[in-house]
User: What shape does this take?
Amino acid sequence: MTTIDRAQHDKLANAIRGLAMDGVEKAKSGHPGLPMGAADVATVLFTRVMKFDATDPRWPDRDRFVLSAGHGSMLLYSLLFLTGTPGMEMDDLKSFRQLESKTPGHPENFMTTGVETTTGPLGQGLATAVGMAMAERMLAADFGKKVVDHHTYVLASDGDLMEGISQEAIALAGHHKLSKLIVLWDDNGISIDGPLSIADSVDQVARFKACGWRSERVDGHDPDAIEAAIRRAQKSSKPTMIACKTIIGFGAPKKQGTSKAHGEALGAEELAAAKQKLGIPGGPFEVPADVLKAWRGFGAAGVAARKEWQDRFAALSERKRGEFARRLGHTPPAKLDRTILAHKKALIANPQNVATRKASELALDAIVPVMPELVSGSADLTPSNNTKAKGLEDFTPKTPKGRYIRYGIREHGMAAAMNGINLHGGFRTAGGTFLVFADYARPSMRLAALMGLPVVYVMTHDSIGLGEDGPTHQPVEHLASLRAMPNMRVFRPADTIETAEAWQLALEHTKGPTVLALSRQNLPQLRTDATAKNRSAAGAYELLAAEGGKAQVSLFATGSELELAVNARKLLAEKGVRARVVSVPSLELFLAQDEATQAAVIGSAPVKVAVEAGVRFGWDAVIGHDGGFVGMHSFGASGPYKDVYKHFGITAEAVADAAMKKHNA
Ligand SMILES: Cc1ncc(C[n+]2csc(CCOP(=O)(O)OP(=O)(O)O)c2C)c(N)n1
Assistant: This one.
């Protein structure tokens, strides 16, 4: 236990409170209530409990701290400053919420060193931390506890626990007995609308227990009690939730304990009164020298532990050290290219007319043996998503070397955990569900795109082509909506070769997530070439040129509809019309190419028709406003898939007719 006495603790905690009040006051916006209320909890974590070295915020074996309640960002920024994290100066705190500052409204891991994950959408941080704790266990299994042995701490608010994603997250964590995950709940009973009691009456302690956690209640303003609870948590074989009873806006005489302290500046009068009440000396942004010195001491307290870690790391073989660095840097294995090329060549030698979900499994079968960092999984659709490649064993508490995660029917929790696994470092993640249920995972997918995390979503049953399950399961607007998301790449490969190429591009890409939209139904292998060149890399390419002269028609298609375009080209030839076929495995990747490349692929044929079993939205950039489009204009329908395609007029004949109409116009 600590040697920090109460008076010293209060000074340390009040430094956070003072900075948070001043930061919000200067910005005239922000959330002072949480930092003031949770300052004691955070101070205990950072001065007594956590293993970290502020001077080396990227030390791989540091304890992770996730501020799930991202609106309380001044708490985190104050801690980074006080502990002496490089790059966080007092001037940065003074620039809170200003453009391009290191102190944006909500924590953004790409703006601020020391921020482990971007938070703000409530619930996401908690669910992301579950993935971090999973990754810690998996990486320890690969490299040993001497180099990977740390905790993941989360500070969560009422909102974090009310959001539905929290249920998926805590159920996953409890099931996996993620004992190194410790959640501190800022139990202040207040949110924006007022007291929590107007909208919530969940017994959170009982709820966590029911999900396989240890949980207990403490006084969130009693540092020794908080520390003791955390020490008990560290010894548990289960994850722990500690309900820390706090007062929002602690110290603000009129506003504390009310929603008035939640999300606005206190105002000069209340701020001055709070500082007086708390005994915080000095003017705005002033931290007494002795207090800052003490904080800096705690920031550097982990230097020795880090150096010892470095010695242990240095004792690993050169090969292991290199592999550790490669994996933490998300660098794809050197063998990946060769592996994909050999896989493509085998497919050309022995063509497979299979669904692209099956093609994805074939690609994974080839990739998994050369990519030990690839963690696959599915939200209870393993036999449908084909995500369990040969050689992948289940990840369970007893088999931490398993690289297949059974996420259960928890798409949102899965997507957030995938983010956490990537953020922790050492792993790449792929997770499966039906494309239509991207909607159930979307807020976490958006954060992956925002943070630039290279996760892969294996989203099968990608159109009305799934047939009998009907419109609830048939994605229609999903391709367009995912393409609309900045930094999200969507691939809809048409055959085995394009699927292998899409996997290669997804895994070689380290700056953002990728959706693989894959068919349920079998498709012909249309590609007959297997050069080292990845033809999908530019997003689109000419699959078949026009025969017998200049093209009169350009047909564009993705995924399962490429076959229709190929057949339509034949029908047009029978009518004496020359058509070429362009495959577009990734529309937005294509639209990101330079103008000349785009123009060359789009071509100069006067008639342009696109076919995709989704909505038109986005296609005008290729076919023009006056182009023809064969696709969906409504929700789908239940029936055998060939009947459904006919019903909605998505056929080779319809494509040929659309082209003929334009040709004759
Ligand atoms: C998903 C999501 N919905 C809504 C919000 C907007 N929001 C920010 S803070 C907040 C209230 C949070 O209350 P609580 O979690 O108790 O935080 P505290 O009042 O203790 O600071 C809301 C609704 C959000 N950030 N994320």
The chain has a mean pLDDT of 98.
